[in-house]
Amino acid sequence: MHSVEIKDLDLSFGAVKVLQGLNLDIHDGEFLVLLGASGCGKSTLLNCIAGLLEATDGQIFIKNENVTWKEPSERGIGMVFQSYALYPQMTVEGNLSFGLKNARVPKDEIARRVARAAEILRIEPLLKRKPGALSGGQRQRVAIGRALVRDVDVFLFDEPLSNLDAKLRTDLRVEIKRLHQQLGNTIIYVTHDQVEAMTLADRIAIMKGGAIQQLASPSEIYNRPRNKYVADFIGSPAMNFFEGVLDGGTFRVGDLSFSTEGYEFEKAPSGPAFMGIRPEHVATGDSATAQPIQLESTVELVEPMGSDTLVWATVAGERFRIRVDGQTEIRARDPIRIGFSAAQASFFDAASELRM
């Protein structure tokens, strides 16, 4: 069953098209992440689903009900914004119950819902405090609780962790995933942070220019990106790319030739193409000698990152990134042997940039 359906959705601001013929089906109980760079249309799409923006064309269904022209309060959704938007003069308990009081929910039902949300989010000791006495992470929990007390089927999260420091983001990311597993509600979550997307989502919709580039599981998007944009966007550090020519079982880049053995093409490959290989799929040193493609280069830059180290080199005139174990002794200007297999690469047509 589909919890949310979006059909041929368009949104324009004057002559500027922000969303273009967008179609999206979100399953009941699914955690779907809208991911993309700033300006790609992800928050705009979320605001259309919430009813905060009026679509130019198309339809939006929530639980099989057409809500395209309904008010936000009539859509059966709970929304968590990037800013906490808490009432500073009210206690946590007051913030959680305020919307329910306005909706004339009975007092005993309000108390039950507030107690349940506080227990789930582990904020019971904070109920008598005001927002000014809370940390950023605690305020965001309260903001989530305010949506939670509405007892709706669909929750919308608009970059809720972007104002927090790195450790708090990690902690609250775990809390949000735990919350979804516990409640089983449908969640649509907007972020530009690919780590959040990969760790939270059942499926990810990668957006660019108001359109969805790929909609799939995190594993599918990471291992089989649909086009070069998705391949370049997902992964930190980004995928390495070579621009060359495919000719049967060979990929040529300048004076270099790589075997494409092990890669499953849909049809016999030929013509201009891009080959991409992720930094973590590159072997170095003695391990590189076991790989079908082997190259020699010189280390230009080393970035120690604790558990691993990022090494920069130049291959075929292109910057090339390699992820190695953090205990590897390696320095700038050291010679380095690189090895990888086409079986772990991705090939994209140069004209369409679609996966081959």
Automatic annotation (TrEMBL):
CDD domains: ABC_MalK_N. It comes from the Bacteria. One of its GO terms (biological process) is carbohydrate transport. Keywords: ATP-binding, Nucleotide-binding, Transport. Residues 4-234 form the ABC transporter domain. SUPFAM superfamilies: MOP-like, P-loop containing nucleoside triphosphate hydrolases. This is sn-glycerol-3-phosphate ABC transporter ATP-binding protein UgpC. The lineage of its organism: Bacteria, Pseudomonadati, Pseudomonadota, Alphaproteobacteria, Rhodobacterales. The gene is ugpC.
